[in-house]
Amino acid sequence: MNREQLRAVVLEELARIAPELEPAALRADRPLRAQVDLDSMDWLNFLIALHERLGVEIPEADYAKLGTLEQTLDYLAAKSGG
Prior knowledge:
By secondary structure, the protein is mainly α. It has one domain: Non-ribosomal Peptide Synthetase Peptidyl Carrier Protein, Chain A (Orthogonal Bundle). The protein contains 4 helices and no strands. The protein has helices at residues 3-17, 32-36, 40-54, 69-80. Helix 1 crosses helix 3 and helix 1 packs across helix 4. The longest helix has 15 residues, at 3-17. It is globular, with a radius of gyration of 11 Å.
């Protein structure tokens, strides 16, 4: 899966959890949770959804590596070979 496909999956899953999300307003270098106003349970559901959609294991120790959209895409690309 290429980076644009990964980005589409990430944005789709974010939109499921936060339907008010405006993808065009997201900044790739700012914390996702703050931009989308996700609480800890929403964040966990988002990470689980990524795991289920992409088959990528995201251990709790790696959660901090997915802070921004850019970091999330880098992490998923590295883990999925994208």
